[in-house]
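Is iron/sulfur cluster placement plausible here? Inputs below.
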Amino acid sequence: GQGDLPPEIWEKVKNHPCYSEEAHHHYARMHVAVAPACNIQCNYCNRKYDCANESRPGVVSERLTPEQAARKVLAVASTIPQMTVLGIAGPGDPLANPAKTFKTFELIAQTAPDIKLCLSTNGLALPDHVDTIARYNIDHVTITINMVDPEVGAKIYPWVFWNHQRYTGVEAARLLTEHQLRGLEMLTERGILCKVNSVMIPGVNDHHLVEVNRAVKSRGAFLHNIMPLISAPEHGTVFGLTGQRGPTAHELKALQDACEGEMNMMRHCRQCRADAVGLLGEDRSAEFTTEKIMEME
Ligand code: CLF
Ligand code: SF4
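Reply from A.M.:
I modeled the complex. C-alpha cells:
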C-alpha cells in the first residue's frame, strides 16, 4: 500500500516492479539492449550484464537499434498488458551510448506514452546528462555505486575513460565517486526517483557498504539494492576477480539488515539481463527476438 509515501512518489512507484516490492507481483518490465559500449572497467564485469551490472547464465543479449527497440516495445506491450516499465540497462553503460539511448526513449515516448522510462548507469557520465534525462521525462534512474572511498574503489575499478583520457587506480575511483554522488544529487534535486545498486564483494567492499548506504541516503536516494557478486563458473570469466567468492545468503541478509532503517532496502532484485522481458524472475525474452517480432507484424 501507499504507507507513508507522499502521493507524488506513490504515483511513481505503485506500478514499477523494482521500486515496489508489492508491484513486482503484478507488473512487468522489459529491457532493450541498445547500449553496447562502456566507459569504465569493473573487475566483476563479464559483459553479459544488465541493470545490476552483473552476469546471468545464458546467451548474450541481442543488440538492437533504437528503431528495432521501439518496435519490440510495442510488440511486447500488446502481448503483456502488465508491462509498465521500459528500462535501458546495458549491455554496456547507457550513458556511454547517449545517442542510441535517448533516441530509443524518444521513440518510445512517442509510440507508447503510458510506459514509464527507466535508466541504469554506472554514473561516470551522469552529471553531463541530467538535464537530458529530465527533458525526456525519465522518472527512474539507477546508479551502481560500490564505494565512496577511492582506496576501496581502486580494488574494484582498474580504469575509467573520461574526457578522452584513461585514468587508473585511486585517481580513476575518485573521479567515478565524485561523478556518481554529484549526479545523484542533481537527479534528486529535480525530483527524479533514484535507486542505488551496490554489488557486495566479500573482503573488498562488504563492510564499506554501510558507509555507501549513509552517503546515498543523505543525497536523497529512494531505495538501496545491495546485490551479491555472482562468481559461479557458469557465469563465465569475471574480469580481474579470479578466485573471488560471492557472499553467502546469510552475509547478504546481515548487511541488508544493518542498512535497513537508514533507508528502504530492495530485497526482491532478480539481477536480470540487459534484454529481460516479463515479471521479475520470469524471462520471456526468447518470445520477442527480432525475427519473431517481424513475424508478428
Ligand atoms: Fe530494469 Fe533496473 Fe529499471 Fe528495474 S531491473 S533498469 S530498475 S526496470 Fe530491477 Fe532487474 Fe534488479 Fe535491476 S530486478 S536487476 S533492480
Ligand atoms: Fe561492465 Fe557495467 Fe562495469 Fe561497464 S559498468 S564495466 S558494463 S559491469
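Short version: Residues 169-189 form the longest helix (21 residues).
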